[in-house]
Amino acid sequence: MNTSSLINQVNESLATLGAGPFMTDSSKDTETGAVVTGRLDGRALRIEFVEEGSGDGPEKGHRVDVVDDASGENLGTGRGDSTFADAISSHNWGGTVEALKQLG
Q: Between these two residues, 58 and 99, which has the higher pLDDT value?
């Protein structure tokens, strides 16, 4: 999976909030998508891109989770029906940035 374009979209969303960028350390493909590790505002995070469902087409959903590496806490989830780009667009990035502030 080409995660660089997805991370670019994540960074565009963060930039509209005056946050970021998410600096990528590594990326690995998984059975259901990909996991990208990196740092946002000095905090180690992973962004998980997960394909859900069993079929092709509309019944296959896409999920983007942002997880704090230290605590394992999910800092936000976005869901899209047809693409990861839809899931990134639906993600509440403002909520994720606020959750990061709360973690210190």
A: 99
